[in-house]
Amino acid sequence: MTDSTAPLFQYYVAASVDGFIADRDGSIDWLLAFGMDEFTAGYETFIAGVGAVVMGSSTYEFLLGEGPDAWSYDMPAWVLTTRELETIPGRDIRFLSGDVATHRDDIVGSAAGKNVWIVGGGDVAAQFSRAGLLDELQLTVMPLVLGAGAPLLAVDSLRSLELTGSTPFPSGAIELRYRVR
Questions:
Q1: H or E stretch including 129?
Q2: What pairing do the DSSP bridges indicate for beta strands 77-80 and 161-168?
Q3: What is the pLDDT, as a whole number, of residue 132?
Q4: pLDDT, tens digit, for every residue of 109-156?
Q5: DSSP 3-state helix, strand, coil percentages of the chain (rounded to 5)?
Q6: What does the alpha-carbon distance between residue 117 and residue 114 come to, in Å, rounded to a whole number?
Q7: Do the beta carbons of residue 143 and residue 18 sit within 8 Å?
């Protein structure tokens, strides 16, 4: 049971019906084709409760490649990596490696009482899940099938989820909110 006053580790993500967050080429163009208008209100509500983000090096490098305007996080960002990566001037970006559980207290402390968003990818979310640190999954299922690509959550054992809410969208997408047991 999670302490109700403790910040939550939340995996907020969109995936295809068959469970992929990027296509076989690592692209999310399929997701961007849906536009963001119908999802904006939910995202703004979600991000208002976030005090820190965590991502893997692939997600970080993808954002770097999108240009300086793609970095929209005005909060501490933690990047899991075993390599030295460039930083973004004026941004609070911290690099870490090793077992995510050993960094939990530092990540929570940087979130200043708010929740922690596990931005991605699926391997990073799986590391938090294996460590017993994943509290919520907020998944928007997009109405298409990719057939292959980067998996939503690369875990080797089943986890029990409790549905806490859902929101359908005009495009056919549906957001599912789960508490991880």
A1: helix 122-130
A2: unpaired
A3: 92
A4: 999 999 999 998 999 999 999 999 999 999 999 999 999 999 999 887
A5: 25, 30, 45
A6: 10
A7: no
CA-based nearest residue to 180, from 160, 165, 152, 153? 160
166-45-112 Cα angle (round to 5): 120
The Cα–Cα gap between 66 and 107 comes to 25
- At 74, list the tokens: 């005005």
Q: How far apart are the first and last CA of the chain?
A: 8
Q: Is the pLDDT assigned to residue 2 strictly greater than 70?
A: no
- DSSP single-letter state for residue 68: G
pTM summary value = 0.93
Contact 115, 134 (CB under 8 A): no
